[in-house]
């Protein structure tokens, strides 16, 4: 059960998919980047607007992102925000998103709040850069610009494919097409990655690139096609000849159609499914993969490992430039993906040609419970849960015997019954408000049943008081468990994992406790499943025993600590026996400590360190200079001494090694 508008789940994709929009594939526009940066930094004293205009597929968004993320822009502006407008938009939602990025806070804005006024106040006396990507009409600009105060040296950058709109906003910056040489360079990077093109293919390859007429999107799509073809000059020459007769608009649609035609049937279904998501929507990859599996799009060569197969499908579409990576996780895995407008339009038009999926909107009790062609995924609109309750239905009355993915996002607490144990194929459960008051829980069948296929459970807000702790043992093959505990009465001296051998397939664990929990009880025992790769803890007191247990997790790569209190005193002394051998990413947020002591051997594999809202912390251990893999330190809303220590570590690294290995990111508005 899914509402795309409210999805915020985490992705867990460990494959290294290539990203068509990343730096290694950024070709051409070097002068454009430099000119735009100069305009943004050295232009007028008063607030100024820059409009980038170009046809679809020319690379406006990629260029804007490249400029937006450049070091000189990051260092120059106090506040930055990047927002996509699209043809259909909600001014309120856009302003909330810009406010969130500008303040760095995910604050709770109420319905009665004047968001435009809140945003103006957040931007006053700040040098800001706002990027409004993909504006389609001048009214959208009129609706938004009043919320941007006229602060000195502040800038607004707009991208649009409509030249008339760009001209109304400001003097347009006309984006050029790639040259034949640049087109060939981009094509080679996409087809051959880091290898060189064989000599016998160079002439034919250059013709393919030249006939793409300088459109980057067309080039990367055609690169995905010829990469699947036989590597012979005659084959490529024939392909180039077919391209030569097409105009610019035809080129774009032909490239999308051809890319689609070269997909296997399962990948065609996976791609078309994207047409159901809203325009310019950042799609949470974890949700997308579960939906593909539930819809039976993913090949079932290995039924026990469908998740890996779904990741392979994702990477295949990304490598062909049919999907774009919009955000990666701290370890480089894909978190969100997007689709270009042209590809989404193609998918939407294809979907209209066939009845692609069933909808339950709303439940019709007169329909047969067993359709001729049963599906594994149901789409239920926001009000259906209310309707079910009003008419006396329970979730169990909907045919769910073969259900694989169960997602319920509701503000109402969902009560389940032992019938959940009949869902033998259940793989993923995500219920925002879940009650563990089990009806007939003493029945022999329900107390003994195990759901072997369940892989992920969470993130759920749960009340633990009436739950038998052995409940979790009945999901022996869990890979991801995320819980937000809202009531812990009756759970003292219990543990989810009595021995490390329980849940030996669990790789991701996230647990948050209510405020006040950790400082008044000793419930949380220091036992963790041995194969954890990611651990997130919030609201607990860390004892030396717990820290040692975490350090003993030899596969742990990501550790996030939120609202943490150290039991004995506000110090974290990483002892000699507490070595986080595999840890690559460490985030400390609202951690109550003033002294942090460590050695260079404590975090030998650390690549990224994020410290946020640790206002009592005095400094980062100077030994971090010696951690060779360390590439980024990010400090947000901490003391001056912490910021100084971060910069000092960076300077020491440069002095010792002779080059800038380490980046230090300290947002100016903090």
TrEMBL record:
Annotated InterPro entries: Apaf_helical, Disease_R_plants, LRR_dom_sf, NB-ARC, P-loop_NTPase, WH-like_DNA-bd_sf, WHD_DRP
Family the entry assigns: Belongs to the disease resistance NB-LRR family.
Record GO biological process: defense response to other organism; defense response to virus
Organism this protein belongs to: Capsicum baccatum
GO molecular function, one term: ATP binding
Keyword annotations of the record: ATP-binding, Coiled coil, Leucine-rich repeat, Membrane, Nucleotide-binding, Plant defense, Repeat
Gene3D superfamilies: Helical domain of apoptotic protease-activating factors, P-loop containing nucleotide triphosphate hydrolases, Ribonuclease Inhibitor, Winged helix-like DNA-binding domain superfamily/Winged helix DNA-binding domain
Protein name: Uncharacterized protein
The keyword Lipid biosynthesis appears for this protein: no
Record's GO cellular component terms: membrane
Its membrane topology: Peripheral membrane protein
Domain named NB-ARC: residues: 30-196
Cellular location(s): Membrane
Main location: membrane
Disease resistance protein winged helix domain residues: 277-346
